Give the backbone structure.
Amino acid sequence: MNNPLLNNIEVTFHQLMESPHLFSFQDFEFLTNHFQEKLTIDDHFILIEKRLRYGQYDDEIERKTLLAIIEGNNDKANRLLNLLERRNSLNLKAVN
């Protein structure tokens, strides 16, 4: 597959590591698969954390919950998970 993202592989890898939120989901998935052998599990967590922190996410409560889980903030994560459960049980929707 001749993907233009791979024209300058070092630059693309650097961009992925520094600003993963700037890539579309498809490009992000393609690049993480392409660089799979180069990325550690810690790298994957860092990339996901950056995408959540700096990218667009439709549901702010879910975004904050995932960040709390990644950061290891169990109290905040549990509080937000309870809030999500209550919201979902009431069939409420997040609105932007």
User: Anything to note?
Assistant: Residues 2 and 30 are 12 Å apart (CA to CA). The chain has five helices and no strands.
